[in-house]
Each structure stands twice: as structure tokens, then as C-alpha cells.
Amino acid sequence: MASKYSVFDHDPEEERKKDPQGPPLGNLFAAARYLNLLFSANGVRWAAMGGFAMICRGSRRTTRDVDIVTDTIPKTLWTIIEAQPRLIIPNTRLLDGVIKIFVLTGPSYQDRECIIDRPVEADLVIPGAKGTPVLLAPHIVTLHVTVGGQTQGFYCLNTLYMMRTKLRHCATRTMDRDVIDLKFMLDTFRDEVVAIRNQLDDGDIEAFLDRDYIKELGDAWRTYYRSLLCG
After folding, report:
1. Helix (H, G, I), strand (E, B) or coil at 91
2. pLDDT value of residue 94
3. Helix, strand, coil share of the chain (percent; to 5)
4. Residue 11: what pLDDT?
5. Residues of the chain with pLDDT under 50
6. Residue 180, Cα to own-chain centre: how many angstroms?
7. What's the predicted TM-score (pTM) here?
8. What is the spatial distance between Cα 15 and Cα 179, in angstroms, rounded to a whole number?
């Protein structure tokens, strides 16, 4: 059985201050690989989103956790994770459409890509929450990443929903990392973004273009990004 932690005693911002870099990359991939095996064994579709998915797309940014959207209902998801001794789960089931868990990773768990033992945070998002698709299957892509000399495939949200979720976050919170991720998507996957721009929210696009980070790049860059997103 999984062990449990108190949601009310857990302070993610305090943890970020104590350890701003977060877990090593190998531990992040070990956590994602474990969850892939767990969900696949239980017939649950899943896709990475957020910072971990950006890393799978080639971004060099850091992240502290693995954000995952699944295609199952919270009750089924809870039954699956509650039975796993490698997981630390909350003492309350769902907050704001997310179950925040921790995956125990490292050499003690035969994770070959790790050099230290480390719990890794994983946010399990229910379909439709935080801008994710209600129907997940059509919006999954497989991305291949080389970690520790081994190439692994991970399921991630496609370009449409990577843009939708990141634009939604950009419009509803102040972290620069959301803006930086969107800039990376526009710079790296320009043609893919242009192909789906008519399916993006106009208000969220304007919120992105109005962020100080984008304005400080100068009018030429801001105009360029507007042309990619709006035509």
C-alpha cells in the first residue's frame, strides 16, 4: 500500500526555496517510466504535460515534477495508486482537479538512470482540468528521449493541447516559465503551431502577448509572435 502525506502540512513553495533546482533529470525520467508501466498495466491512457513534456520536446528548462493527464475517473485512479508501495499519496483525494503524489526513485528501486534516491512529485490531472482535453486519445503523441544512454518513449500532449494548456496557464498565473515555454514552442514548432492557431483562445493569446517578458523582447518579436498566433 502507498504511504500518505498531509496536504495541509505540504508547502510546495517552501520546498522550492530549499531546493530551487529540483530533482535530477534521471529521477524525473525514472518517475515517468514507472508511471508509464503502472498505467499501461491498468489500461489507463496518459500523457505528460507541463515542464516534463517540454523537456521531452527538447527544451533545456528545468522542472521539479512530472505533470500527467489521464483518461480515467478519479475513483479508478485512486484505486490504482493506493495499492502501490512506491508511491506517497495525499490524505485527501482531489484538489482542483489534481492528485499530487510522489514517486520513490533511485538506485534502491533499480532505476538505472539515477545516481541518488529521491522522491519525485507527480501531478495527476483529470481530463478537462487545467485546459486538458476531455477526450485524451486523439491528442497523444509519442516522443523519444535519450536518458543515460538509453532511448525511451514517453506519451505527451500534442501541439494543440500543449499550446492550449500553456496559454491557459499564462493567462491565469504569473510564472515566467509559462511564457518561456510558449516562446520555445513558437520558435521550435512554428509550422505545427500555425496549423492549429485557429483552435486557440484569442483571450489567452492576448494575455501571452501582453506579458512583460514578451514586451521586453521588443516590438519586432512581439509582432512576429502575433503573426504566428493570429495570422
Report:
1. coil
2. 65
3. 50, 20, 30
4. 64
5. none
6. 14
7. 0.91
8. 23
Amino acid in the structure at residue 113: E
Sheet with strand 3-5: strands edge to edge: 3-5, 87-90, 98-105, 118-125, 65-70, 46-49, 150-157, 140-147
Contact partners, residue 76, CB within 8 Å, separation at least 6: 44
Q: How many CB atoms lie within 10 A of CB 105?
A: 27
Count Cα neighbours of 90 within 13 Å in the Cβ-side half-sphere. Answer: 19
Q: What residue ranges in the chain does DSSP mark as E strands?
A: 3-5, 46-49, 65-70, 87-90, 98-105, 118-125, 140-147, 150-157
| Residue 101 and residue 87 in contact, taking contact as beta carbons nearer than 8 Å | yes
Q: Are 200 and 163 in contact (CB under 8 A)?
A: yes
Instruction: Provide CB contacts within 8 A for 10, sequence distance 6+.
Output: 90, 100
Tell me the Cα Rg of the chain.
18
- Cβ within 8 Å of residue 125, ≥6 positions away: 49, 67, 68, 69, 70, 97, 98, 132
Give me 129's grid cell: 482540468
The span from the CA of 32 to the CA of 47, in Å, is 10
Neighbours of 165 (CB within 10 A): 24
